Amino acid sequence: MTDRLIPFRRPSDLQQLPDEALISGAAAGDNGALEELFQRHGDAVYRILSRLRTIDRRDLDDVVQTTFIEVRRSAGSFDGRAAVGTWVIGIALNVARRHARGEVRRRAAVSAIAEMPAPAVPASPYEEAAHRQLLVRLASAFDELPHDLRVVFTLCDLEGMRGVDVARTLDVPEGTVWRRLHDARARLRDRIDHQKGAR
Amino acid sequence: MTRFAWLARGRHCPPAWKLTRAASSEPRDPELETHVAACAACAAELGTLRELAAEARALPAPSGMSSESRAAISARLLAAPPEPPRRESASARSAMLLTAGVATIVVAIAVVVAPIVRRGASPEEQASTAPPPTPVSASVPRTSRASIRAIGNARFFRAQPPPDEIVRLDDGRIELDVIPLAAGERFRVVTDHGEVEVRGTSFEVLASNGSLRSVSVSRGRVEVRSGGGLSVLDAGDRWEEAPPPAPAPGPTAPEATPARHLPAPKPRANQRASAAESALFDRAWSALRAGNAGDAAVTFADLERRARGHAIEEDALYWRAVSVARTKDSASAGLLFREFLRRFPASSRRGEAAVALGWILLDGENVSEARHAFEQALADPAASVRDSAAEGVRRTTPR
Fold first, then answer.
1. What is the model's pLDDT at position B207?
2. Closest among A112, A172, A170 to A138, alpha carbons compared
3. Model confidence over A111-146: pLDDT tens digits?
4. Nearest Cα to B78, choosing from A73, A26, A41?
5. Which of these, B241, B343, B353, B374, could form a disulfide with B358 (CB 3.0-4.6 Å)?
6. Integer Cα distance of A116 and B172 in angstroms
7. pLDDT computed for residue A67 by the predictor
8. In B, residues 289-328, which contact A (CB 8 Å cutoff)?
């Protein structure tokens, strides 16, 4: 669109359509339908990508946008086996994986740790410090996880998704999800214990 | 807390991943629970896993997407250029067909820079000589009256939903399947300086630089409005615009393009509003006064349709634009103010409409066109309009 055009107005009737109808519209190139999908699922995508900590905050918007452009490109192959939201997150994770292969990966991990906010409910100054140390160690250990394990840990333990949905999102058997999650937790625990011992 | 307890578990213990699953928010596994109750090693591991999961959940949630990010991504998605879909599934295709309905008509709209299609060619000839369309993108919201496919890199957007549906075409060729319209419904394709209204038909339009160049009708009836005139074309009819005049120094008014074959507007047979029209006007005004801008816009639109050729049509269109602007639908309001200025260039409300359009364009960061609109109102008789126009010109003047 050129800047001569008056901005598109999102028809309110799109808000009444189910996700599947929006996918059909997006598959046919309807940007209004695509934008409505973004309104519905953009927050979840943004939150999960934030939690993965493989993407610099300055790049998050671009990755979210790329995700939904990819949604439009792939919409024709949506087969309805998974919920649309689950399917969109799967696409976001693939986009994030490609992005993470770039040179920004290390910078992102470092900056994410530095920007990590304090826990919401501190008990006492000592407990607060101890808790914060634990979280920092956990976050640091998390950043060292391989991508596959990090994704499963994020979706299962941070996002609280059911294993069957995670399996659909990642297009892997459910047993693989549990094995990866177990491996992720084991590595995290080992790493945290190692950090404790090193102090 | 040390390493995982599974190292000490026995060979009769369940696989570790089952404990992992049990430590997650998953349905209970009675068999596993029975085992864990009797196995200290597995119970210890399960406890460790649950503790870690709880610690992970204590990690602070990341901050959400900002409203600025949301708006920026939203705008970029809406403006994303079309690209070929990878594969269109049967389910998606059938959904589109269901959306379009069984009884559809085909409307082909094209805005191209190519020369005007040769005069007198039959619709069949034109169809046979035209390159096969390459579907690139489509727009099929369930409630829209049309599915739209862009041919090539067409730039278009749906400016207004039904019942008065408007598709704005900036450049390129689009093909539309339009569902037969019900009473009170309209469907239009609008360019900068002209528009084509569907009357249940099949037709083709050529345009360039935002102006209509030619319209040929193969089926049904089409209404063409361009250069301040109106023409109704039936099957087999063809309308062509004269070549653009030689460029003159200075800015060119968009509505100055003459139409060679466009008949002059028909005389307005009845300049007085009928009782029904007056009642409709009062109803619309009451809605606007009551703050129901949406209802007012719909009623003014209805009045505008009924009052074609009557003096009240001018007021209806102006107040319709105002009502739509009050619904915060700037895009549609801008189109309506443009339409008003084009159709009623001598209106006493021209200055007000131009200023309103100017501010809408400026909000959309279209500075040059906004300045042009403001300049049209600098000599308005009303001081408030002149002041607003002057302020608009000041804000759009490069420093």
1. 56
2. A112
3. 443 344 433 444 455 555 666 677 777 777 888 888
4. A26
5. B374
6. 49
7. 93
8. none
CB contact B354 to A (< 8 Å):
no
Per-residue pLDDT, B159: 67
Across B74-88, B189-203, B293-307, least confident range? B74-88
pLDDT digits (tens, 9 = 90+) for B245-265: 444 333 333 333 333 333 323
Residues in chain A: 199
**Alpha carbon B282 to chain centroid, angstroms:** 30
Question: Is B158's CB within 8 Å of A28's CB?
Answer: no
pLDDT at B277: 79
Give bridge partners of residue B110 from the DSSP assignment: B173
The dihedral through the CA atoms of B46, B49, B54, B57 has a sign that is negative
**What is the Cα–Cα distance from B80 to A112, expressed in whole angstroms?**
30
Local structure of B189: helix, strand or coil: strand
Q: Do B57 and A69 touch (CB under 8 A)?
A: no
Whole-number pLDDT of residue B126: 31
Distance CA B147, CA B142 (A): 9
Secondary structure (3-state) at B41: helix
Q: Does B253 touch chain A (CB under 8 A)?
A: no
Residue B88: closest CA among chain A residues belongs to which residue? A76
Chain B residues closer than 8 Å to A79 by CB: 89, 91
For residue B27 the two structure tokens come to: 């349905």
Task: Give percent above pLDDT 90 in chain B.
Answer: 2
Closest approach of B305 to chain A, Cα-based (Å)? 22
Three-state SS for B196? Answer: strand
Question: Taking a C-beta distance cutoff of 8 angstroms, is the pair B214, B205 a contact?
Answer: yes
Nearest residue to B392 via CA among A165, A20, B363: B363
Taking CB atoms and an 8 Å cutoff, what residues of chain A touch B339? Answer: none
Relative to beta strand B211-219, strand B202-208 is: antiparallel
Range of B143-157, B206-220, B335-349 with top mean pLDDT: B335-349
Cα B339 from Cα B368, distance rounded (Å) = 19
pLDDT attached to residue A71: 92
Say yes or no to pLDDT of B156 above 50: yes
- Interface mutation target, options B4, B17, B70, B177, chain A, most CBs of A under 10 Å: B17
Tens-place pLDDT, residues B111-127: 332 222 223 333 333 32
- Residue contact A156–B24, C-beta within 8 A: yes
Checking if the pLDDT of B390 tops 70, the result is yes
B152 closest CA partner among B168, B165, B128, B169:
B169
